[in-house]
Amino acid sequence: MKVIGICGSPREGNTEYYIKTVLESLNSKGHETLYIPLRSMKIEQCEGCYGCVKAHQCVVEDDFQAVFKHLIEADAIVVGSPVYNGSITPRLKALLDRAGFSARWMKNELNTQNGKYDWGQMVFSRKLFAPITVARKTGQTFALSQLTLWAQVNDLITVGSNYWNVGTAGTSGSVNASEDAEGISIMAHLAENIDFLLTKMNAS
Ligand SMILES: Cc1cc2nc3c(=O)[nH]c(=O)nc-3n(C[C@H](O)[C@H](O)[C@H](O)COP(=O)(O)O)c2cc1C
């Protein structure tokens, strides 16, 4: 099964470490994995042009399209973000805004008749989604909620661990996630849960 890990950090930091911990574990269990750092990418915010409603795809052309292709092909999506002022990072938010909205319209037409939608299967439906957030001190759970809410409104299935999927690292900006034993064990169990579910999905 295909698993991608998207990193919302603008640097090679702690978030990358946790995501790679999950991906490496899944890779060792036989899954195909791909790490996608957003740090060097140009992904503009959603312009609210509603062009995707008619075109059935996002009409703003930048690095979004390449990442979106991987999102569509994946069976499980790991998304990690540093906590910036209690929130996920802007580039990741831009990606998720555009991905969620345009995915909604890929298989649906605008219904102006009675305001009712039968969305049916959307392109992200029943993909697994594993959110991870990382902070120096606090704000992980709010940012985790942002990612979880994105998954729920877009019909993905959120995967948890034996604690919230969070890391605590980076005092004064240092990159020291490798010293966060508890965080690493949370990620290890998260990978086990993803593998468990992917194996069930593959068998059905
Ligand atoms: C602009 C900015 C805002 C931050 N806001 C918070 C915050 O609200 N709470 C916190 O605990 N850490 C905060 N931090 C620290 C980062 O979350 C921490 O360094 C984290 O390890 C960054 O992830 P990375 O190493 O993957 O880049 C902030 C860092 C930056 C650069």
From TrEMBL:
Coiled coil: none
Pfam families: FMN_red
InterPro entries cross-referenced by the UniProt entry: Flavoprotein-like_sf (IPR029039), FMN_Rdtase-like_dom (IPR005025), ISF_SsuE-like (IPR051796)
Database matches in SUPFAM superfamilies: Flavoproteins (SSF52218)
Transmembrane is among the record's keywords: no
Positions of the NADPH-dependent FMN reductase-like domain: 1-169
Keyword tags: Flavoprotein, FMN
PANTHER family: IRON-SULFUR FLAVOPROTEIN MJ1083, NAD(P)H-DEPENDENT FMN-CONTAINING OXIDOREDUCTASE YWQN-RELATED
UniProt name for this protein: Flavodoxin family protein
